[in-house]
Design goal:
heterodimer, A: 30% helix, globular, B: 471 residues, alpha/beta, 5-stranded parallel sheet, 17 helices, 33% helix
Chain lengths: 202, 471
């Protein structure tokens, strides 16, 4: 996984709450067995609407999505994170994320930055007034920044310490766990014999 | 201070616990299906890793399989490739697989309990958000993404931050004809789609204790729909009776040892939950959704709400969007809404008890002239059991379609989809925009409401049928 320290890119205002993962990528796109090439499925239904924000040239090349509360609820499909990344997003800002989506983001290297709802509102207003304006997601200092001068927005965001550390270092989670192999083996030795197994010695 | 049920099960699975890091949890059972696993197996291959515990892993084919002509090669080449990839991966990594056509094939959350693999006090994960279903047995069970699937395959563990605990107490008894599904839909509307976020929820109280295992699974299944990490119910005699004698249940002295342990899996009297919700069952009525998330619900006897019925501005915008998408006008009685398709099935309501209940209501009636009804058993065994009881004949005589096992129209990945503008009453778990097919409009309902709706062609409960019957 690539290291993430800070990112500045065009902000895309998604003025919607409860954006579930079926909206981020519909099930028909989940038949593929790869981890790439999902950008065509991102918000597939909404992109048919000419007024949808991703169809607005002013936000072309957007890489920071700014969404309403409860972003990424519903299905566990990590394809939702891949679709956002394949399209070019590096970070998503929202007042609240679906649990599994947030976990998937942390594993795949997409920063899910949780901020106060009022901050999202202010960034939305800024991006509406100045389409194409950039938003900075600084993982090191845990801050989001946008705008300049007296209207400048700067606020802290929430992300758990462990995920932040892994993203900053670009660390592979499985590698870390395998370094505790002895602990796992010791635990396995203590499991009661009546616990079920899926395969039986013949 | 005592411990909650969730804390007891959690603590029994901690492999490693260090300040400032998530706990490393041992996973007792890893369930796998064809849609969220191929990239995980690819990851193992790339890193030259093996599956650490194939004996704690079980795969089935459910999300992307046809429910018609399931004994023939899959027609859609992309779907066929995905299913064949599952089979190749299972073979290569030595994972037990129940493929399409196998007697144990079915929706992963129906198969686990049916085999007796789902037991109290376990940790169970699957690359599917409705893994919470297994919590009905007093297990900690939750959905994970594909990176985590790879992690569990390689290590049989997951790093997890310990969630907070919440109790949802449902006092009293459910009235006749009101089900666990109505109960959980009412709860989600009460708490909101994010209300459970960050919590493992324990459902308790008289109404929960009075539910069958099937009903308990329906309630726990929908935990994710209000954002909970997991939902669980303390095991009791109902749980033990359900498990005993199943193929993978402990036997002999093992059974006695297991039950002795399972009986300790109860929240201590002096344990403290981080949050508590209390609801009363006796006043609950059939509950249905009108909008595009599971928290947008009302009693069947109510009217479609309007944006002005909500205080929060985000909720008002969401209601406006939902009404537009659903093609509904505020103030319309829910009972006046005409339905094109009724779907009975899914990991929420596709078990044998659900099919029995639907058949009991349908028997002697006809599905309304311009309504279609799809009945999709949750597993091949559920299908065979239903056929042995003659339920398939009841459905077919009423004009319903009787299908093979799988997730089917719950997520519309296989050919079972709604077309644009088509309206369904569905016993599944999600009414998101386009969930059951692009432009499709979904109302989440209980099994009795689904069956009565099929007969009348409008959202109905069995109580509405008495007038039809006299015609």
């Amino acid at each position: 996984m690539e290291k993430f320290t800070t990112h500045t890119g065009v902000g895309v205002p998604l003025r919607r709450s409860n954006v579930d993962t079926d909206q981020i990528i519909p099930a028909e796109y989940l038949k593929r067995v790869t981890r790439t090439g999902f950008e065509d499925g991102l918000f597939a239904a909404w992109r048919n609407d000419a007024t949808f924000v991703l169809n607005n040239e002013a936000y072309a090349g957007g890489s920071v999505l700014v969404a309403g509360p409860d972003f990424g609820t519903g299905s566990s499909r990590e394809h939702a994170v891949w679709a956002l990344q394949n399209y070019g997003f590096k970070a998503v800002i929202s007042p609240r994320f679906g649990d599994i989506f947030r976990g998937n983001s942390g594993k795949a290297g997409l920063v899910a930055a949780q901020v106060d709802e009022k901050v999202v509102q202010r960034i939305w207003d800024l991006l509406d007034e100045q389409p194409g304006a950039t938003v900075t997601v600084d993982l090191e200092s845990r801050t989001v920044r946008a705008g300049e001068g007296i209207d400048a927005i700067e606020d802290s965001f929430d992300i758990d310490d462990y995920t932040r550390w892994r993203l900053l270092e670009g660390l592979d989670d499985i590698g870390i766990t395998l370094s505790h192999d002895a602990d796992i083996s010791a635990f396995e030795a203590t499991r009661p014999s009546w616990k079920p197994v899926t395969q039986h010695a013949s | 201070m005592g411990k909650t049920l969730a804390e007891k099960v959690w603590d029994e699975h901690v492999v490693r616990s260090v300040d400032g890091e998530p706990d490393l949890l041992f996973i007792d059972l890893h369930l796998i299906h064809e849609v969220t696993s191929p990239q995980a197996f690819d990851g193992l291959r790339l890193a030259g890793r093996q599956v650490r515990r194939p004996d704690l892993t079980l795969a089935t084919e459910d999300h992307n399989v046809p429910t018609l002509d399931w004994d023939k090669p899959i027609a859609d080449p992309v779907s066929r490739t995905q299913v064949e990839t599952m089979r190749r991966n299972a073979e290569e990594f030595g994972v037990r697989l129940h493929p399409l056509g196998d007697i144990e094939q079915g929706i992963v959350h129906v198969v686990g309990p049916q085999l007796g693999l789902t037991q109290p006090g376990m940790t169970i994960v699957c690359g599917d958000s409705h893994t919470s279903t297994h919590g009905a047995f007093g297990a900690i069970a939750f959905g994970i993404g594909t990176s985590e699937v790879e992690h569990v395959l390689a290590t049989q563990t997951l790093p997890q931050a310990k969630p907070k605990t919440m109790s949802v107490t449902i006092n009293g008894s459910l009235p006749e004809g009101v089900t666990g599904k109505d109960m959980v839909l009412a709860l989600i509307t009460h708490a909101g789609t994010g209300g459970g976020q960050g919590y493992i929820v324990e459902y308790r109280g008289q109404a929960i204790e009075e539910l069958s295992m099937e009903g308990r699974m329906t309630v726990c299944n929908m935990s994710i729909e209000w954002g909970a990490k997991a939902g669980m119910i303390a095991p009791d005699q109902v749980t033990f009776d359900y498990i005993e004698g199943r193929p993978e249940a402990p036997k002999g002295a093992d059974w006695d040892a297991a039950v002795e342990h399972w009986k300790t899996l109860r929240t201590d009297d002096d344990a403290v939950f981080d949050k508590e919700i209390v609801l009363e069952a006796s006043t609950m009525t059939p509950f249905v959704t009108w909008g595009t998330n599971p928290g947008q619900g009302v009693p069947l006897g109510a009217n479609v709400p309007g944006p002005e019925d909500f205080e929060d501005s985000q909720d008002q915008i969401a209601a406006e969007n939902a009404l537009r998408y659903m093609g509904l006008e505020a103030g319309t009685p829910m009972r006046d809404i005409k339905v094109d398709t009724v779907f009975v099935g899914s990991c929420t309501n596709g078990r044998i008890e659900d099919l029995r209940l639907a058949a009991q209501i349908i028997e002697g009636h006809r599905v309304a002239a311009d309504t279609r009804m799809l009945v999709v058993p949750g597993s091949a065994r559920v299908r065979l059991q239903a056929e042995a009881e003659g339920l398939d004949v009841v459905f077919k005589q009423a004009g319903a379609e009787w299908r093979g096992a799988g997730c089917s129209m719950c997520l519309g990945m296989n050919p079972d989809t709604l077309s644009a503008g088509e309206r369904s009453a569905s016993t599944s778990n999600r009414n998101f925009e386009g969930r059951q097919g692009k432009g499709g409009r979904t109302h989440l309902v209980s099994v009795p409401v689904a069956a009565a709706t099929a007969i009348r062609g409008t959202l109905s409960s069995p109580a509405d049928l008495q007038t039809v019957g006299s015609n």
